[in-house]
C-alpha cells in the first residue's frame, strides 16, 4: 500500500527536535515525511496528504496553499488556529485539528502567578531588593476578589478552576449567556461584554481570535473596567486594541496589565509597554513548560495514528467558528 505523504512545517531550530523525537519515528516509517521551512512549503505541499504545522507562529500556509492539490488533513501544534484560518482553508474539505489540552494547566498557573504578583507587589519587591532598600508595604488579598475569564474553552476552564481553588470569585464570558456552569457558575454573553466588565477586579482574556473577537478589548471596554482592575491577556494579541490599552494604563483607566501576547511579536523595542511600571510583559511563553515541544509531537503522533487507521480524530476544529466546539 502506498505510503501517505506528510509535509511538516518547521523552523531550522525546530527540525532537530522533531527528527530526534521518539514520537516521530513510527510516523517516518509509515509515511513519506517532508520536513520544510517556510521557503520550501509550497514544494512540500505538492501531492502531500497531510500537513503538520509544527511552527505554529508561521504565517506561510496561506501563500503556499495553491500547491495543496491533494491535502486531506492539517494539524497545527497550538490551540489557536488563526495562522491557518483563511478563506481557502475555511472553504476547503481539509480537516483541521489543533493541540487543545496541552497548555491548559500551564497557562492557568501563569494567570494565577501574575495575579499574585500584582496583589503582593512582587515586582516592586524585586526592584527594592536590587536597590538594597528595606521598604515595608501592605499588600492585597486575592481571596474574595472577582475575576472575569473571557473565553470558556478548556484553557479558560483550567484558569477558572485554579482561581476558584485559591478563593477567588470567578465568572466567564462566552458566546452565549448561561448559569450553573460547573467551572464558571455564571457565563455572560461576550457580545455584551462592556455591560459586565465594571463588576470585576481582574479580567483574563483567553478567547480564540475570530472576526467577532478581534479588537474586543478597545477603549470602550477599558473605560468600563474599574480603575483598580488589572487586565491579563494570554489569548491573542489581536484581541486588544493596543493603543487603547496603553492610553488606559497611562491615564489610570485601569490599574495594570499582564501581557503575554501582542499584536506585533516580538514586541517592538519602542513600545511604551516595556517601561510602564504597572505592566508585566512576557514573550508569548505563558504555556511553555519544560517538555512542551515533545508533548506537541506526541499529540500529533496520536492523531496521525487515528488518521491512518480511520479512527475519529481528536480536536477537530469547526472552521466556521474557528475553534473546537466545547461540549459545555
TrEMBL record:
Species lineage: Bacteria, Bacillati, Actinomycetota, Actinomycetes, Pseudonocardiales
UniProt keyword NAD present: yes
Domain D-isomer specific 2-hydroxyacid dehydrogenase catalytic: 39-317
InterPro entries, A to Z: D-isomer_2_OHA_DH_cat_dom, D-isomer_DH_CS, D-isomer_DH_NAD-bd, NAD(P)-bd_dom_sf
Residue ranges of every copy of the D-isomer specific 2-hydroxyacid dehydrogenase NAD-binding domain listed in the record: 113-286
SUPFAM superfamilies according to UniProt: Formate/glycerate dehydrogenase catalytic domain-like, NAD(P)-binding Rossmann-fold domains
Name this protein carries in UniProt: D-2-hydroxyacid dehydrogenase
Keywords noted in UniProt: NAD, Oxidoreductase
Similarity section: Belongs to the D-isomer specific 2-hydroxyacid dehydrogenase family.
